[in-house]
Design a protein that fits this description.
The protein is of the alpha/beta class. It contains 17 helices and 13 strands. Helix 10 runs parallel beside helix 12 (251-259) and helix 11 packs across helix 12. The structure holds ligand GBH.
């Protein structure tokens, strides 16, 4: 590992997970049904008909999980709270047992010397809200506002780092536009644009809630997963084309959040499918944040086509890929993603809130899982991230997805992203080679 890839002092290193993917206890202590519980139990959409019922049973095993996390040397941990655990019906009566669970969880985390980074929403919409129209209807934002107020009031004395939403595209376009996320409906562009609008409105409420109730030192930002265009070659022309592509790809989220309006170009192209908004929406949506979270796994190659216009260079079948078919190995995304976000939108502090690789790892042999494939990809990604930092892009931290193998949405338990192997029958955890490696990276604050 030459040259010494040292990271800045106080660089934040940690792990990331999400409640629905690890907690289990899907119907315990008064938790309400989420849209993912519903699709898991009533459709064929999820690999092997896997459910979220038990997952990693983290609901019961959190203490030993935090002990392991700490043993590996993580001092920061990004988790999410389950909205349907706090409000089983999405709004209305609070479920005290759910509220108490997260008090215990946060206290245990802190007792293990781990700083929480809490995502308010990571896709597990209460089914009751979906029954009212879900992200299609504005009511979701009112319900979210109350939920955000409640959790910031409850936990804000100990939680100082808040993330409003995880990956808006995954519960809007991919969910209502016929791709691969719950509730798996296929509606037109008008509906999809409207779901985006309600999502960014919720982001605004999340920021507002932290400002109102977060107390001293509270910080808040969005986590997004922009499609990252990589210039095919680092020529002026390709770089300019990739830059344009970044703006176009992410127009529904970054323009309103950073500029307080939709881009005229977007509205013109959307025509009658443009979203409806109300007076004052953009004041909320564009409230200043403290950081931007980026989930970066892959990218797309772009070159300057006719008239300099961006042209996506399709992946050939030979292009290297993780076992998750969407996860083409493009470590350059960790350089260009932060660079575009800071260059174009002036993002001051950037955290990589997820990065990792999904493989169908085999069970431990003699206590070992030799996932050199994952270790090498993450290392390649961190090299690219290091380049961004060298060039003065303000990247402040990195959270590896994921601490342990967990419920990988439509791929069920088949596809593993953990650096700790989860045996879903015995719930035994086995740190993989990548965990031992990442542990050293965190300890030495440099690539090894
Ligand atoms: C993240 O999603 C999630 O935050 C996390 O919960 C998840 O477990 C993790 O990554 C690993 O998947 O448009 O049909 O080509 C990443 C989600 C997956 C979203 C691929 C875009 C492309 C599907 N991304 N998806 S498609």
């Amino acid at each position: 590992m030459n040259p010494p890839y040292t990271f800045p002092r106080n660089f934040v290193w940690g792990f990331a997970t999400a409640a629905p993917q690890i907690e289990g206890a899907a119907f315990e202590d008064g938790k309400g049904e989420s849209i993912w519980d519903r699709v898991a139990h009533t459709t064929d959409r999820i690999h092997n008909h896997d459910t979220l019922d038990v997952a990693c049973d983290h609901y019961h095993l959190y203490k030993t999980d935090f002990a392991l996390m700490r043993k590996l040397g993580a001092k920061h941990y990004r988790l999410s709270l389950a909205w349907p655990r706090i409000y089983p019906q999405g709004r209305g009566a609070v479920n005290q047992k759910g509220v108490d669970f997260y008090h215990r969880l946060i206290d245990s985390m802190l007792a293990h010397g781990i700083t929480p980074w809490v995502t308010m929403f990571h896709w597990d919409l209460p089914q009751a809200l979906e029954d009212e129209g879900g992200w299609r209807v504005r009511g979701v934002a009112e319900a979210f506002a109350t939920y955000a107020d409640t959790i910031v009031r409850e936990y804000g004395d100990r939680v100082k780092n808040w993330i409003t939403l995880n990956e808006i595209v995954c519960f809007t376009r991919l969910a209502y536009g016929g791709i691969d996320k719950a509730p798996f409906t296929n509606e037109g562009e008008k509906v999809v644009n409207q779901t985006y609008h309600h999502a960014i409105l919720c982001h605004g409420h999340g920021v507002r809630a932290v400002r109102e109730h977060g107390g001293r030192g509270a910080r808040v930002g969005l986590t997004d997963n922009p499609t990252v265009p990589i210039p095919l070659s680092e020529t002026k022309e390709d770089i300019a084309a990739a830059r344009t592509a970044f703006i176009q790809n992410n127009t529904r989220i970054f323009e309103p959040i950073f500029h307080g309006r939709y881009a005229t170009d977007y509205l013109r192209k959307a025509g009658a499918d443009r979203p409806i908004w109300e007076k004052g929406d953009f004041d909320l949506i564009s409230l200043p944040t403290d950081f931007l979270g980026l989930n970066l796994y892959t990218g797309e190659f772009v070159r300057a086509g006719k008239g300099g216009r961006p042209e996506v260079v399709p992946f050939t079948p030979n292009y290297p890929c993780a076992d998750s078919p969407w996860l083409k190995l493009v470590p350059e995304a960790l350089y260009w993603g932060p660079r575009w976000a800071s260059e174009i939108y002036g993002a001051k502090a950037i955290y990589i809130t997820e990065n990792g690789a999904g493989y169908d790892d085999q069970p431990p042999v003699n206590g070992e899982v030799l996932d050199v494939h994952r270790r090498n990809y993450v290392r390649a990604c961190l090299k690219e991230l290091h380049r961004a930092i060298q060039e003065k892009v303000l990247v402040k931290g990195y959270f590896l997805w994921s601490f342990m193998d967990n419920f990988e949405w439509q791929d069920g338990y088949n596809r593993r992203f953990g650096v700790v192997y989860t045996d879903f029958v015995t719930q035994k955890r086995t740190p993989k080679l990548s965990a031992q490696w990442y542990s050293r990276v965190m300890a030495e604050n440099r690539l090894v």
